[in-house]
């Protein structure tokens, strides 16, 4: 019980810090190229993953050993691209509006898992998927009658993150979570190092302070999330990540003077409800499959 309580504390810490990280990213991306901001952030992240890997059992070499190197590198590259898109979206679309759209990612993952992973989806999850998509459409509904092209940016970010999650599910069949985490940081860091210098911009002393804080929040949030997954099932962690949407709305409205529309609020409630049900239902189906496998082998 104590372990679970600590796990939930780690989740809340991670989500809170992730939200602060998004707020800082929005500030920096409104002044400097998002690719440049992401590169500096990934340098700190990659260093953290390397140090963490070196302290694991078997050391760096054992952690880096993978049965699916191409897919692991693909995951790291895709997530790095998604971070660039997300930061760009925070600066152009807004923190609250972007996170409202990102909240629909679990629905997209469930939808894409059928053709890409061959997963079967029953009528309950189909209902949740349809409801979630309706919520996203409500969030995207333009006031003027025309879809703002800028909203295509967070939508693209949803697809990138969905592909990252699906690739993570595939590699998890062969590699450990720590190995996947290692390649997320290192592959992403190398990718951004190859691209980021072309966007190098000299920052003011004050903004270097914000950048240092961004790096520290990135490292600490991932550390707390790792600790949370050590103590809790993913089905317990994932629904709590929707708190990030609440934090984004608070930060967006109070600090950046963003406006919450009625469509955004109602659509977000629908999307979150559908997403939580989808995550819970996936957990139920996976647990049932494990039990059937155990019964068949006994």
Quick synopsis:
This protein has helices at 2-29, 34-54, 59-64, 69-92, 95-102, 105-117, 123-140, 152-171, 177-195, 205-231, 234-237, 243-254, 262-297.
Structural commentary:
With about 300 residues, this protein is mainly α. It has one domain (about 1-295). It contains 13 helices and no strands. It has helices at about 1-30, 35-55, 60-65, 70-90, 95-100, 105-115, 125-140, 150-170, 175-195, 205-230, 235, 245-255, 260-295. It starts with a helix and ends with a helix. The mean pLDDT is about 85.
How many distinct beta strands?
0
**Which regions are unreliable across 5 or more consecutive residues at pLDDT < 50?**
none
Distance between the termini: 30 Å
Q: How helix-rich are the residues, as a percent range?
A: over 70%
Mean pLDDT: 86
Oligomer: single chain
Strand and helix order: HHHHHHHHHHHHH
Number of domains: 1
Q: What is the makeup of the main sheet?
A: none
What proportion of the residues form beta strands (DSSP E)?
under 5%
Overall geometry: globular
- Put simply, the count of helices is 13
